[in-house]
Write a structure and sequence with these properties.
Strand order of the largest sheet: 3-2-1-4-5-6-10-8
CATH superfamily: NAD(P)-binding Rossmann-like Domain
Mean pLDDT: 93
Low-confidence stretches: none
Number of domains: 1
Number of helices: 6
Helix content: 25-40%
CATH topology: Rossmann fold
Largest sheet: 8 strands, mixed
CATH class: Alpha Beta
Number of strands: 10
Distance between the termini: 39 Å
Length: 215
């Protein structure tokens, strides 16, 4: 599979790139600073901006799927990001003939707020609120895009090795996630990689956490 990745220089995105290449896939990293990526076999690096649909379209040509693992800097958590990136990706994917798209979101964004519990729920309403509004504005545009989309909603991200059995649940089940749903970036990357060719996840918001026990 040939996979385009936006956010490849971030901590989750770089983990996804590593896992995808290790699994034998080709990766196209669409990044703002190409010099931030090391040259590797089966990795193509394309420089471009999130609002540049023409350049992104060319990057997506020949790809089977596109993955977004974008995240703002802590100091810019309320700045528009997904509401700019998602419509650009939708336009580029349609022009390039790419049907599959997976977007890394966050637990508590949009309807998934109903799947949260305290104390995490409090954060969704306070210091995470601006970033979550941006995610929702962007991700809402996927619904009528005609693309085979999935959004993945992990809890607070952490580094370190993946866990054997991370919890992954369809948000529409109404499942209540753990109060402290810490999630390993390695688990998120592995889950997205599996979902790329899993038709049962199309059109769904998938919750996940590495903390498998509800506390």
């Amino acid at each position: 599979m040939r996979i385009a990745v936006l956010g490849a220089t971030g901590r989750t995105g770089s983990e996804f790139v590593t896992q995808a290449l290790a699994a034998g896939h080709e990766v196209v990293a669409y990044v703002r600073r190409p010099d931030a990526m090391d040259t590797q076999s089966n990795l193509t690096v394309v420089g471009g901006q999130l609002d540049d649909a023409a350049t992104l379209t060319e990057a997506l040509r020949g790809c089977d799927a596109v993955v977004l693992t974008l995240g703002p800097k802590v100091t810019e958590s309320s700045k528009p990001l997904m509401q700019i990136a998602v419509p650009t990706v939708i336009d580029a994917a349609e022009s390039a003939g790419v049907q599959r798209i997976i977007v890394m979101s966050a637990l508590g964004v949009g309807d998934t707020f109903a799947n949260t519990r305290y104390p995490y729920r409090l954060g969704c309403r306070t210091f995470l609120a601006g970033n979550f509004r941006d995610h929702k504005t962007g991700e809402d545009q996927l619904v009528d895009s005609g693309l085979d989309w999935t959004t993945v909603h992990p809890g607070p991200l952490a580094d370190g090795p993946g866990t054997p059995n991370p919890l992954i649940v369809d948000a529409s089940t109404g499942y209540q996630m753990p109060r402290a749903p810490r999630t390993k970036r390695a688990d998120v990357a592995a889950a997205i990689l599996r979902m790329l060719d899993d038709p049962t996840t199309v059109g769904k918001q998938m919750l996940m956490t590495s903390a498998t026990q509800v506390a």
